[in-house]
Amino acid sequence: MQNSRQELDAILTRFKGRHGALIPLLQEVQQLEGYLKKDTLKYVSEQMGVSAAEIFGVATFYSMFRLKPQGKYVIRVCKGTACHVSGANTILNAIRENLKLEGDEDTTEDTLFTVMEVACLGCCSLAPVIMIGDQTYGKLTPEAIPGVLGKFAK
Amino acid sequence: MEKIIAKLGLGSCGIAAGAGEVWTELEKIVHDEKYLVKLEKTACIGMCFEEPVLELSGPGKPTVMLGTVSPGDVKSILDGYLSNTLEYNNIILHEHKEAVHNDLIGNQQRIVLRNCGVIDPESLDDYEAAGGYQALRKALTLKPMDIIDEVKASGLRGRGGAGFSTGMKWQFAFNARSDKKYIVCNADEGDPGAFMDRSTLEGDPHAIIEGMIIGAYAMGADEGYLYVRAEYPMAIKHLRKAIADAEAKGYLGQNILGKGFNCELHIKEGAGAFVCGEETALMQSIEGKRGMPTIRPPFPAESGLWGKPTNINNVETWANIPWIITHGADAFRKFGTEKSPGTKVFALAGKIKNSGLIEVPMGMTLHDVIYKVGGGIKDGKKFKGVQLGGPSGGCVPASLLDTTVDYDSINKTGAIMGSGGMVVMDEDSCMVDIARFFLNFTQNESCGKCTFCRIGTRRMLEILTRITEGKGVMEDIEKLEQLAVKIIKGSLCGLGQTAPNPVLTTLRYFRDEYIAHIEEKRCPAHSCTALLKYEVVPDKCVGCTACARKCPVQCISGAVKQVHEIDQSKCIKCGACYTACKFNAITKV
Ligand SMILES: Cc1cc2nc3c(=O)[nH]c(=O)nc-3n(C[C@H](O)[C@H](O)[C@H](O)COP(=O)(O)O)c2cc1C
Ligand code: FES
Predict the structure, then answer these.
(1) To test ligand 1's pocket by mutation, which of B189, B196, B279, B344 has the most ligand atoms within 8 angstroms of CB?
(2) Over the stretch A65-123, which tens digit does the pLDDT of each residue have?
(3) Helices (H), B377-510
(4) Does one domain contain both A9 and A38?
(5) Which residues of A touch B272 (CB under 8 A)?
(6) Cβ B355–A61 below 8 Å, yes or no?
């Protein structure tokens, strides 16, 4: 905990006085702590002299910021146009079924996976596409999903 | 003996298709077994559907390009090529012989993509060897106004969507009086189904940077930003390196090439908001705020970033600049049409055979783009429509395939040129569902500032969803049309002003599909799940049990060698049985 507070302070120091730095700052904070914790945001607000309202405004505006804890692996399921016409829905359903996610749950109980829908990963010619961490998987079929996810399960 | 060169495409599309493993294998063989092969990296050549793509060339040998290469193929390919006995089942380009995609490249005209898939994007030397930074050298000997006149004379129009004259925009920024001016590269590429900018950023980052430096000099700016989507990590990596290399070589920074001109460039990563592609929202975002569009005027050229005059251009627009400065406006005008000179990069995706990136002269017909360059429709299906311009654009039907690709002709169809995404749909795509898809997208991405955009798009989405579920009534069509007009009138920025386009164009060209959903409770494309049933065709079913074994909810019953049956009350319509059946014994009704 102590360590991470130090790292957090290091980030804040680096961004102090730079104009227009709130978004990259929050990106780094999120990278450090996995998601944007309420307490952390309050701390950032005090330290940087930016109102909490502004910080929460920005954090809720951009889809990249997460205000809830997320799984070890983030699965981005592309729901862009090319993927949509190539069956992205069946891929998403297969993933959710495989991970036993119900209702609007997006993170597995063991916090191994978080499933996110995104609009276009820029690999449209390989549609349907998903991204797990930094790795992109294309030309998927629902049948291929257990195999792909299996590589990440413990 | 001179070495042969093996060049592998390592763009994100290549990596996603497994090019990373092919590279490892190449390195292993060449180093461990001392092959006389020089390995080179490049980015995307545009034939993403054939990735991983490997190009071989060498003294006295034909240049060939091979598609869908797997690590296991590498050794036999190298052996074959070295001994002039290459045999491979997917030779896609061949210098001397017929090959499947010789025409695919032959029908293109590459200005923006001139170096993509050719040079190593991480090598400044490669870029310079291809003529890079010569345009900047030339520009710095010219007066700023001469550069602007050349860009005006070229007739280049903004490639980010609206197609405004780039030269005019530069003139406005030039005219603005201020101690400080900014330039911005819009690399937010929000259209879901488009990846032109990604490929250019990954494949030829210096071309964009060189264009920006020239622009900064012409307009009197000394600082610039590249606003890049965060979903494009490789683009960001290549840009970072390119900027650092250009600085080290004196193309960027203080006293550029000893001419007393200074220019600094920074990268800003987006954080996931489509509306940030809109220029005023983008500037808010660079300033670290919520990306809400602001009222224009004042235009960015008068008051942009931090209230200073700012010029924003799209990636492709910037990448055209060095070519225009080097070759001149007249050479540029040799391509394209009178009002839309030059070329346009398109990202072909969806149900098209050659899905990938192409660059063609403006004025080519949609038919030629899709059939000659794009190879036609996948799996022998029938063309239904092509979505141009993403969520702001519209769907053009088969009857209008003679439309030429230029800003004005495409506008007449009700679609827009947009940034260059072309998503092709076949008989299996439901046009009402496509309209619903885009409204869902814009409704999600509306920043919420304008009531009509915020609430209007939601109402439209509700109606469309109702129709795709078979709960629509005929008045819904009228309601959609009325809402569309109101949203267009009542929205501040392009997001709302164009959001109804996909609905309006599908209503115009595919009205019978809406009516089938509403009156007959039928989806002609068999795509809307609520209106779809899977049934066994008794005559064709041989009782192989393949479907029953695949069904995730065990709703298919039947003994071996007996006709099977689907329990409609349990069926979740996943389509697994449909794919599993080898006898076409399952139909969608
Ligand atoms: C909702 C919306 C999204 C946009 N997204 C992009 C984008 O992703 N990339 C882009 O270059 N222009 C986008 N634009 C257009 C920009 O506002 C602007 O016109 C463009 O960057 C100007 O550059 P150009 O003159 O070189 O085309 C968008 C516009 C709107 C209204
Ligand atoms: S639409 Fe899925 S990657 Fe572009």
Answers:
(1) B279
(2) 999 999 999 999 999 999 999 999 999 999 999 999 998 899 999 999 999 999 899 89
(3) 407-412, 431-445, 451, 457-468, 475-490, 494-498, 501-509
(4) yes
(5) 62-64, 118
(6) no
User: Crossing angle for the helix pair B475-490 and B511-519, nearest 10 degrees?
Assistant: 130
Cβ-defined contact of B441 to A19 (cutoff 8 Å) = no
- One domain for residues B178 and B326: yes
Task: Give yes or no: residues A49 and A81 share one domain.
Answer: no
Taking each helix axis as running N to C, give the angle between helix A2-15 and helix A22-33, from 0 to 180 degrees, rounded to the nearest 10. Answer: 160
Report the pLDDT value the prediction gives residue A107, as an integer from 0 to 100.
94
Q: What is the mean pLDDT of chain B?
A: 95
Binding site membership of B159 for ligand 1 (Cβ less than 6 Å): yes
Q: Which residues of B touch A122 (CB under 8 A)?
A: 12, 189, 195, 198, 229, 231-232
Of B160, B205, B163, B215, residue with least CA distance to B419: B160
Q: Is B578 in the pocket of ligand 1 (CB under 6 A)?
A: no
Strands (E), B170-297: 182-187, 223-228, 264-269
Q: Are B153 and B277 part of one and the same domain?
A: yes
Contact status of B203 with chain A (Cβ, < 8 Å): no
Q: What is the pLDDT of residue B1?
A: 63
- Per-residue pLDDT at A2: 57
For ligand 1, say whether the CB of B236 is within 6 Å of any of its atoms. Answer: no
What residues are in contact with ligand 2 under a 6 Å CB criterion? A 78, 80-83, 120-124, 127, 129; B 192-193
Asked if the structure places residue A67 within a domain, the reply is no
Residue where one domain finishes, among candidates A61, A87, A112: A61
Task: Supply the CATH number for residue A41's domain.
Answer: 1.10.10
Are A47 and A78 in the same domain? no
**A39 and A105: one domain?**
no
Domain containing B374 equals: 343-426
Distance in Å, alpha carbon of B286 to nearest chain A alpha carbon: 6
- Amino acid A154: pLDDT: 65
Q: Does A101 touch chain B (CB under 8 A)?
A: no
Q: At B183, is the secondary structure helix, strand, or coil?
A: strand
Q: What is the pLDDT of residues B118-128, one digit of tens each?
A: 999 999 999 99
Asked if this assembly's ipTM is beyond 0.95, the reply is no
Protein residue with its CA nearest to atom 6 in ligand 1: B277
Question: How many structural domains are present in chain A?
Answer: 2
Q: What pLDDT was estimated at residue B552?
A: 83
Q: In whole angstroms, how far apart are CA B512 and each of A37, B429, B526?
A: 51, 14, 14
Q: What is the pLDDT of residue B115?
A: 97
DSSP assignment of A110-139 equals TSSEEEEEES--S-GGG-S-EEETTEEE-S
The predicted model scores a pTM of: 0.94
B76 part of a folded domain: yes
Residue B470 burial (10 A CB sphere; 0-12, 13-18, 19+):
middle
Tens digits of residue pLDDT in B457-493: 999 999 999 999 999 999 999 999 999 999 999 999 9
- pLDDT tens-digit series, residues A126-148: 999 999 988 889 999 988 999 99
Domain that holds residue A113: 73-153
CB contact under 8 A, B16 and A118: no
Q: Mark whether A88 and A28 lie in a shared domain.
A: no
Do B315 and B457 fall within a single domain?
no
Judge whether A68 lies within some domain.
Answer: no
Could A19 and B49 be called an inter-chain contact, meaning their C-beta atoms sit closer than 8 Å?
no
When divided into structural domains, chain B yields a total of 5
- Inside any domain, residue B118: no
* Inter-helix orientation angle B144-154/B315-327, to 10°: 100
B482 lies in the same domain as B564: no
Domain assignment of residue B116, yes or no: no
Q: Do B437 and A23 touch (CB under 8 A)?
A: no
In order of B168, B216, B226, B349, B415, the CA distances from B174 in angstroms are 10, 10, 20, 39, 33
For chain B, which ranges sit under pLDDT 50?
A: none
